[in-house]
Amino acid sequence: MSDRWQYQLRLYLADELAEAARRDPDTPALAPLHEVLEKHDATMKCQLDAFADYVAEAEAQGIEGYPLYEWTKATIEDAVKRAKHIKVFTLHIKGREVYSNEEADALETDLQPLVDGTSITRMSRHDTNPANNPQMPERFRRPQI
């Protein structure tokens, strides 16, 4: 059943373009991408920045209410994982991190011509099915009371 799950698209950018997307989103090199995103009322967020925002919010609000805090903090503190996630951009549609299959299909279709293997190295689709997503390592799980 395709409408059981929600979807998310991610773009993987080359180093230079990733840095521009994080620091100067109005750079001309991103104009074609922004045109497609605007058409779909979509935005993009660097995964590393999203992880850092989650950690900062948890620390400000109290980590007890943030079950992924320890795992996320360990991820952003790991140099290899930082280097990986700094190039990955999650696409949000209408402010939502996950969206319908139809919305994902339409955005993916319009983005595909921009995935050139050089600037935008690839695009991936993820779903909310827990069986398809990494599970938190045991060492980061808090005991259930």
Would you write up a description of this structure?
It is a single chain. The protein is of the alpha+beta class and 145 residues long. The model has no long low-confidence stretch (mean pLDDT 93). It has one domain. Helix 3 packs across helix 4. It has helices spanning 15-23, 31-39, 47-61, 69-77, 79-85, 101-111, and strands at residues 7-13, 42-46, 88-93, 120-127. The protein has 6 helices and 4 strands. It is 41% helix and 18% strand. A 4-stranded antiparallel beta sheet has the order 2-3-1-4.
Compose a concise summary of this entry:
By secondary structure, the chain is α+β, with helices and mostly antiparallel strands. Helices cover 41% and strands 18% of the residues.
